[in-house]
TrEMBL record:
Protein name as it appears in the record: Probable membrane transporter protein
Residues that span the membrane, as ranges: 7-31, 37-57, 69-88, 94-115, 127-152, 164-182, 189-212, 218-236
Pfam families per the UniProt record, alphabetical: TauE
Subcellular location, record wording: Cell membrane
Major localization class: membrane
Amino acid sequence: MVLALGAVIAGFVNGFAGFGTALVASGFWFLVLPADVVPPLIIISALAGQVVGLIRLSGQMKWGRSAHLVSGGLVGVPLGAALLGYLNPQAVKAAIGIFLVIYAALQFRGLPDLIRNDHKDGRADRFVGFFGGILGGFAGLSGPVPLVWLQLNKLSPIAQRERYQPFNLIILGFAAIMLVFFGKLDRTLMIYGAVAVPCSMVGAAIGVRAFIGVSAATFNNVVLGLLLLSGGIIVVQSAAF
């Protein structure tokens, strides 16, 4: 029941905001599942939720607008994985967590328009995607940097999602391929996945429906709240290790 409940709630958040499965699901699943099962289960459940969002919103988004972020991210992922042998992952996670907490807190108070970017040449988006890919390959944190970047550009909810949701989908897909490559899709994971994946998809479908028609202010506040909570959790986890 805890597995299914966590999957539905995490799926809802993923469907509404386009990210957040790991943040929500880990709070449930680490209580009842073997610790080594949770990370790969989050990946396949998040991927399923992303696919639901892709299908349900396909008529409202121009997915090609994510191309610059994605192209930069795919280059960055291998570099991030290579850096694992040279940098301390917990220190990097702590730095990112502190940044997210400070950023979200300042945004809630109201930041001035600091960035003017028309996204036409794609250079800035590629750099942001590249940096997000590095963090994804290094510490599994591919999403925060593109999210912050798009929020600073004051884009609408749909304009944000049509850029970062395909980015997250492709990075998660790449991570899922790595699970297969390293033999992590074992019988135990598949049993838990048989419960978690369908529940995540149901939650995501409900979340996407709630997202459609939501005001820009509400959407941005939800995303900022998730970033603030995510940053806090990352800092606490890093300090614990």
